[in-house]
Design brief:
The chain is α/β, with parallel strands linked by helices. The chain is 52% helix and 7% strand. Strands 3-7-8-6-4-5 form a six-stranded mixed β-sheet. Strands 1-2 form a two-stranded antiparallel ribbon.
Length: 540
């Protein structure tokens, strides 16, 4: 059977998009209700707090994440508390559309590469798409509120636009490059952990484009577009933070901005950075076997990153090997340079694999491109060595992949069901431990209730304005005081409460039940969240 041509595939884009979206929706529903840690900590709370203007009412309710850009959290919150509050499966299906769009964009990248190489889109291209679209980080986050998939879609959308721009014989159009940069910049603005991608795209374009004036123009266009996109998506929020706490990315990188609200430290999560030179140089190979707390909080294994890593290293070797013959195509050079530059930045800044979805998604296309370049076939067909290499990659992915579980529970009548006593007016509720901030938007309460977070971040700001504000608020509050405590609260969290409110004890404690606290079988936790009224120790 003859493989479909590029043009034939192109005529089926609407049907392919619909099919990918349907797969994403069904996958999200099959995986279950989102109950991941970040949802229970800040994704619901930040949207609620921003819409309700609670920036001057609550204090650090979601810990460090209280000050994250809330835009990406708004759709889920508005749907979960509005039109889809009694349709959790439909809400999950809508969240799953991001995975479908991601898979479709990977397909577009592969098809664009095939067109630039003036060849058919064949079954090995489809295998490359399948490798990238079935990675552990993308599949496991389908339907979740972690927001890695929306930003990855923006990044891949920018790459598709750049590859389209390469088709012009006169060189890439300035407007197309500007739009490609805009996509990557918006992704970084909506979630700044994606900042590595616009930087990588700009320098990768400079590496791929020739002659040098064209490379400079491409770099400048992508850089300008990225800057505009970032300012559009984050500028307003950064200005808000700068005016309120003196740091536009608070509390991150406060060693540069010196906000009086927190210590002058980076406040970045360094748990998953490489521990030794072996990991710095060969980190993806550590992920071939199942591991925990290496680059994720959940157990996983994935060979795609190691395969792409090898492909990036093999490309210059293959170019030397084939000296005097055809050089690597600009599209392949761009993809390899983009992958390498983004990976190096990601490695040094985060090493948190959830943030690397674009690298995972491009892995199959990149590997197939390097295999075709190293072992070119006759006419348009890949060589036997390239075909065998792709089958080996597929078998490795099938045999070694282990998908992580970020937290799923069975569906209930609502996306989040909470049963708790009603809070009286003008109460102060101290959230002891994390994650708890998803509860304030859902607790039954009268007017004037305030929430204060007591957790590791509050303790980290001791001696600075944030801690002082929390201390004064707790000490001078004139209404009822309550403690909302998670069973995962640490001794340090309890000690912080006792220090801020000495001479008080917890009384009239009642459990707070939540559908998100159940296990994957629907069983309630052995130790529930407790809501207790704080009363003077002398009473009773």
């Amino acid at each position: 059977m003859r493989a479909p041509t590029w043009e034939h595939v192109g005529t089926r884009w609407p049907r392919l998009l619909a099919g990918c979206l349907a797969v994403g929706a069904l996958l999200a529903v099959a995986l279950g209700q989102d109950a991941n840690w970040d949802l229970r900590n800040y994704h619901l709370y930040n949207a609620w707090a921003w819409l309700g203007g609670r920036g001057s009412i609550d204090i650090g309710a979601a810990g460090l994440q209280t000050w994250f850009n809330p835009v990406l959290d708004l759709p889920y919150y508005l749907l979960a508390t509005g039109p889809l509050q009694h349709a959790p499966r439909w809400l999950a299906a809508l969240q799953g559309l991001w995975f479908g769009l991601l898979a479709f964009l990977v397909f577009r990248v592969a098809a664009a590469v095939a067109r630039l190489q003036r060849r058919r889109f064949d079954r090995f291209d489809a295998m490359a798409v399948a490798i990238g679209a079935t990675g552990t980080m993308a599949v496991s986050q389908t339907g979740l509120t972690t927001n890695e998939l929306p930003t990855a879609c923006l990044v891949l959308g920018g790459i598709v636009l750049f590859l389209r721009a390469l088709e012009r014989s006169a060189g890439p159009a300035w407007r197309t490059l500007l739009l490609a940069g805009l996509c990557a910049g918006v992704a970084a603005g909506l979630k700044p952990t994606a900042i590595v991608y616009p930087v990588a795209a700009g320098f990768a374009a400079a590496a791929a484009l020739r002659p040098r004036p064209l490379a400079v123009r491409g770099f400048l266009a992508l850089a300008l577009g990225s800057g505009i996109g970032f300012l559009l998506a984050y500028g307003w929020w950064g200005w808000h933070l700068y005016q309120s706490v003196g740091n536009p990315v608070f509390p991150m990188f406060n060693q540069w901005f010196h906000s009086p609200w927190a210590p002058a430290t980076p406040m970045t999560d360094a748990r998953f950075l490489p521990r030794d030179w072996g990991q710095w140089l060969t980190y993806p190979f550590y992920w071939l076997r199942r591991n925990l707390a290496l680059v994720t909080e959940a157990r996983f294994a994935d060979p795609r990153y190691a395969l792409a890593f090898l492909a990036v290293l093999a490309l210059p070797v293959s170019r030397l090997w084939r000296r005097g013959r055809a050089p690597a195509e600009p599209a392949l050079v761009f993809l390899a340079a983009f992958w390498a530059l983004a990976y190096v930045q990601w490695l040094g800044l985060f090493s948190i694999l959830r943030y690397a979805v674009p690298l995972e998604a491009l892995s199959g296309v990149l590997v197939f491109g390097v295999l075709r370049h190293a072992w070119p076939g006759q006419n348009e067909s890949p060589s036997g060595a390239a075909r065998r290499g792709m089958w080996v990659c597929v078998l490795l992915c099938l045999g070694l992949t282990h998908y992580p579980n970020w937290g799923r529970v069975p569906f209930s009548r609502q996306p989040v069901e909470v049963t708790a006593p009603r809070l009286p007016a003008h109460s102060l509720v101290m959230l002891v431990g994390m994650p708890l901030a998803y509860l304030p938007p859902l607790l039954p309460q009268e007017a004037g209730v305030r929430y204060v977070g007591l957790n590791w971040f509050t303790e980290a700001t001791r001696g600075f304005r944030l801690y002082d504000t929390v201390e004064e608020t707790v000490r001078t509050h004139r209404g009822p005081r309550f403690m909302l405590r998670t069973p995962y609260a640490t001794d340090a969290d309890d000690a912080l409460l006792n220090r801020l409110l000495p001479g008080y004890r917890a009384g009239d404690c009642q459990p707070v039940t939540s559908s998100l606290e159940r296990d994957r079988h629907g069983h309630p936790p052995a130790r529930p969240i407790m809501l207790c009224r704080m009363v003077p120790a002398a009473s009773g």
